[in-house]
Amino acid sequence: MKKILLITSILFAILSCKAQVIGTLEQFEECSRRPNRDELGCPDLQNITYVKDTNNRLNQFVGTWKGSYNGKNYEIKLEKKLQFGNYNVKWDKLIGRILIKDNNGNTLYNNSSESDNNISFWGNNFQGRTYDMHFVGNYDCLESGDVFIETKIANPNEMTLFYNQDKDGWLDPAKCPNFSTYGSLLPTQKMTLVKQ
């Protein structure tokens, strides 16, 4: 009788646990390209609770990357996080730490002390070979947008970066008095970084 009770208890515990339903980055990338996605969504992916990097595509970006562009020196550290986020669906994604200095060594931006849960530079998903990330710098000066990174096929130790700054938002001149002369922190033209 004790064995039956034990087995029944174990089976009940197993069945009562919510099963994790795994999808892949590739499935969600394909979903984003569907022509009718805005109307229909992706009903085949509704029950996914974990979007996994099954092919380790994010690994190519992990590490420290350095480069210079337009009088600014960049150091970007990218880290792969598994099952990341405080949401119903967890994702494997990259998070980034950015240090930007001018040519005189003055720090223009540094998010190295941000916690993982409040990070201002995080990944979304792939678009072909390009990985799409989102960046929020000085939000009061409309400094936010998508960052597209891609390693070069001929040299995987080189990565290109392009920043598409958001054009819409609410600007408070009191919080960004120098908006007319404010230059974006990240380059809006394609730049190259080298893996260290």
From TrEMBL:
Coiled-coil spans in chain: none
Residues in DUF6705 domain copies: 1-120
Record keyword Magnesium present: no
InterPro entries: DUF6705
Signal peptide (from-to): 1-19
Pfam family, one: DUF6705
Keywords carried by this UniProt record: Signal
Keyword Signal: yes
Superkingdom of source: Bacteria
Name the record gives this protein: DUF6705 domain-containing protein
Organism whose genome encodes this protein: Chryseobacterium limigenitum
